[in-house]
Each structure stands twice: as structure tokens, then as C-alpha cells.
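ok here's Glucose-6-phosphate isomerase, seq below lol
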Amino acid sequence: MPTVPLRDRASWKALEQHHAEISGRHLRELFAEDPGRGERMTAEAAGLFLDFSKNRVTGETMRLLLDLARESGLDERREAMFRGDPINTSENRSVLHVALRMPKERALTVGGVDVVAEVHEVLDRMADFARRIRSGEWTGHTGKPIKNIVNVGIGGSDLGPVMAYEALRHYTRRDLTLRFVSNVDATDFVEATRDLDPAETLFIISSKTFGTLETLANAKSARDWLVAALGDEAVARHFVAVSTNAERVAEFGIDTANMFGFWDWVGGRYSMDSAIGLSVMLAIGPEQFAELLAGFHDMDEHFRTAPPEQNLPVLMAMLSVWYVNFFGAQSIAVLPYEQYLKRFPAYLQQLTMESNGKSVTREGRAVDYDTGPVYWGEPGTNGQHSFYQLIHQGTRLIPVDLIGFGRSLNPLRDHHDLLTANVFAQAEALAFGRTEEEVRAEGTAPEVAPHRVMPGNRPSNTLLAERLTPRLLGALVALYEHIVFVQGVVWDVDSFDQWGVELGKVMAGRITPELTGDQEPELSHDSSTNALIRRYRGLRQG
Ligand code: F6P
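and the structure came out like this:
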């Protein structure tokens, strides 16, 4: 059924009018008028408590935003995803990352195949492999146990595993060294392997397509590195693959018996809970990996069944739509107050921007509204001493998600209370600021007062959980996956393709031989690219 264009939807028009009425209102007033809002504008699921009261909304705004979600077809589209319909229309694929974390006893038949049974077959093989590596039963070519695991992959085949490994470091076997190589810049590979003993090192070549230039280049260098030390025969004990493409894996020289598969219905950026998470499973063990999956599933079930008024992904997505489309916000900052989540914002960059960085609708019409905002962030409190100034007093509206925890995994003196005080202080300062009157009352000289005024009215969500566990991490990642889904439904874009990345890849393939041949190439690019290629050829010759 063709979707009504966004701007023509009745709820959109109602929101436009409502925005005109309330956009000038300050959070100070909204809180003064309604002292109960801090307790009421909250929701909780899968171990995550959300306080969304410090947003520039009233009950009426939320009602209209949820109307927009409904009118955009959220219920039908969500059902279609969970059913396995090919909702990735430009690639005619199902989008079934939710099946990756369904419990064994569930069945989901798509195209005559029970995908949940397939998922668990791979999970069982991964668990068996992880037990063999972790127990020392699987040895390297010289008989030494594996001590080092190097995941080679990029994009979704890297960011999820790196983020989850860092996030769950507390739960990892500390006698195993995990490294992640992604960049085609050789420095990445060289630095990651320089202190490793090849006889104790396992490479996991992770690539959905097994055709990604960066990953294949690094995989070849990894093979050279290993073969130089241990010989050709060592490859079988030191290389495994995670891919959907058995043919290419075999072509590369990895025995497909040592390949862990997944399926074309898992998007790269939605794949950390598939076999792409093998490195994470090796680090934390199969039981904790099962907990991670259970957390994803907790949030999936919440997203699928909770009413919109209490549905965390729906609420957070619709708030982001409010700021992007009605306040013109260009970016959203995600600020975890948990050092272990230091790579979470980087992970979210791919998840959110590769998904919703689109400018045509699913039917191919150019949009006449903004879509995916820039997501960015850093762990607190470091960000506070860096870019928060702009969020507090700059000219742009930047909604923020603050993520805090009740307990530290590394309790030490009063560090955790100091950390958490900052979560609450930032949300409070952003919302309420400091008026000129207040500043002057402190005795500030009149000429300095304007510099010290904090406008406030800067929106934030606060997410609070007890402590960072594998299960909680799963729920947190699934929360953002579903936020992206809901945004995509409203903006009517295909959140699951990434054609924009392709052109650059094709052009790089064309330029590479022009950089390296002995003969001066005939260049037919624009004058800038031609000149840069010529200059580079001169530089590389030294
Ligand atoms: O960046 C584009 C992309 O296709 C991502 O979507 C994907 O996660 C990444 O490249 C890596 O692809 P692959 O797993 O096939 O190597």
C-alpha cells in the first residue's frame, strides 16, 4: 500500500501547528506547571529506565507524536519485519536480526525454512568452538594453545564486536588477548600483531560478503604473517571465517568446516549477535553470549508488544523525529557514563547513519524533509571537558541521551557517585540553565553576566540501569536498533540498504592501478583528482 507522504499526514500537520504553539515554552515553565512530570514521563523495560521528562514536550505533544507513528504504519511495518517479509525493498530481502536472538524453542518459518533452528545450529557450533579454544583443546599448528584472537573485518563486521568486547571486558577471560583489525591502512594490522606469537594466534576473518577490499587485504597480510613464521600448512589451525559466502571463503583457502555462516537477511550493521560475534563469544564464553542474546530478545519483545506510550524505542524515536523535523536538530549526542561503553557511540554511528542516511522514500521519491541526524558522542565525563560547552551555550539544538548506571563494575572510593552526580547535573543544567537574574544575584559584574547565562531548554533523555551486564548490553543495542527502525518507518526510507557506500568502493577500484603502474597513466578524472593522483605518484616514489 503506498504510504501517504509524510507532510500530508494529518498527524504531521497537527504537529506543525502544535510546534508553533509550544516551541517557545521553556522546560522551566513545563516543570513548574506540572510538578509530577518527572515521575510520570518515564518508562521502563528490559532493565532500562527511561526518564524523558526533560524534553520540550507536553502530554499533547507525545499524543500527537504517537499518532504520527501510528499513521506512518508502525504497527504493520513492525509486524512485517518480525514475520520476515522482504521489507528491505531495494534489495528485496527480509530483515530478521530479531530472529538471531529468538530462543531455541521458538520457530519462525520464512520461505519454508525455520530460521530460528538455523540460527541455533550455528550458535551451537560457535559455542563448541569457543569451548575448544577456551579450554586449550584446539591448539595451533605447533601444538600451543590459542592465546590471541584477531578479528579481521570492517563496518558491521568490526564495530559491533569491538564495541561489545570493550563493553564486556569485565566478563572476559583476561588471559586471552583480543585485537581488531579493520582499516586497510597497514598500520592497523602491523600494530595489532607486532607483539603476538603466530603459534598462539587465531585469525577470524569476518565478512558477510567476503568481498570487502579492506578485509581481504588484511586477511592476505595475516596469512603472509602466519605463513612466514609457521608455513603454509599452519593456515588450517589459525584461520576461521565468518561469512555468508562459502565459495569465496574456500577460494581464500579457509576450510569451510571452519566457517560460521549467517544469512542475507542479517544486515552488516545488525550482525553483532550473529556469528559475527564469534570473537565476543570467545572472549566472554558461550553462557555470557547467551545472556547478551537474551537481552536483545527482552527488548525485541518489549518493542513488539508494549503499548506505544510505554514503548522505549517508540518514545525515543518519536522524540528524535520531533527535534529533527520540527526543531531542525542536525545531530543527537549519545553520552554513556560508563567507561566500558567507550566505543558505543562509534558503533551507533554506523547503525544509525548507514541506516537512515537516505534521501529518497521506499518508492524512490525525493524526500522534502530531513531524515537521519548525525549521531555522535563520547563517554562522560570526558565529553564534558571537551564539547559540552557547545551543547550548553552554542547556537544549535543538540538533544542528548545520557546513559548512567546504579553500580560500577569497578567500585573504587567515591568514583561512581562522582560520575553519576555528573549525569544528573548535566541533565539539570541543560534543561534549566541559569538566568541572567540568577547570575547577577551571585554578584557577577553586569558585563560578564551575559557570558555566564545558561539558556537551558536543551532536551535530554536519561537512561538508567543497575549495572552493565551482557544482558543489559543486548537490551541497549536492541533499543537503538529499534529506534532506527521506527525513525525509518516515519521517514519512509529503506533503513536496511546502503547504496551510498558503493560508489566510493567502485571508484577506489578504478583509481588503485592508476597509482601504482610504472607507466604514467592516461587520467580522465576531473582536474583536481588527476592532479592529486600525479602528486601522489611523485610522493610514493620518494
Ligand atoms: O560499509 C558498507 C558495508 O557494506 C557495511 O554495511 C558492512 O557492514 C561492511 O561494508 C562490511 O561488509 P562485509 O561484512 O561484507 O565485509
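fwiw The chain is about 45% helix and 10% strand. kinda neat tbh
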